[in-house]
Predict the structure.
Amino acid sequence: MGVKKVITYNTFSDILLEQRYDPMGKLNEQTAYEYDLNGNKVLRRIKTDGKPVETIWRYDSLDQLKETIEAFKTPDQKITQYRYDSAGRLTALIKHDGISLKYKYDALGRKISLESSDKKIFYTYEYDKNDNLLFAKDEISGTSISSEYDRHNQLSNETLPFDHKLTYKYDVLGHIENVILPDETNIEYVYEGETLRSINRLGALSYSHKYTSYGPSTNPTYMTLPGQAGELQFDYDRLHRVTGIKSSQWHETQKYHAHLLKERTTQDDFGKTVSTYKSLGRMKFQNKESLIKMI
């Protein structure tokens, strides 16, 4: 018997409680969460053998995060504060050590700079008339990333630091069909109409990732993985939700009740994990076997 992990959710799928038990059934760690009426996380309390350690999140009247307090009311307490402009854009992040990160925007709301108060960080950004990022520069190191776009606003060329270049090519439908890497090898995408059939690495280090079968609703049902990784098989219900994924190493099944996920079971060589939704939307995870063993 290995470790056991139990997670309880509320009706909105927010985690309320995480519990970890050792192979003897002893509770080793417990993490509890609390939320406000707007669904914002306001508290995380981690309890092990010692005193619980809390993290607090505080928000303004617009539900914007204004303060994070780590290790609340302990000697290691750290406070991070956030400031916004009237448009709700983050303008400053003040770290626990007093160093602040300042964000500036142009008249169109695009971020044009990020600078730290200790002068160790200073990035600038430039855009074209279609809001595509053209240029990002580290003003301290002098390195930069530049981008070019085609008439359809699709990224066509990208120059990374040290003059490493990437080139992107698309078909007439706008699907990416080729990426040329800095070493001049290629990644090729092959389609049949709207359906992606394979992803192939061309060159000295070559591999192929293929979608070998699709269902009536164009969901992939079989996928061949690169190298000797084998195949994945996918099953769906009438609402096109995944009900099963299977490979030679593991498999997973999912069951639904109405529109909600009711149960997920994953099985591999190391154990089995079962996740089930209980009443009030609570979910429990149980890992019956694991690589963690008693010594």
Observations:
- The longest strand covers residues 27-35.
- The two ends are 13 Å apart (CA to CA).
- Confidence is low (pLDDT under 50) at residues 284-295.
- Residues 11 and 280 are 6 Å apart (CA to CA).
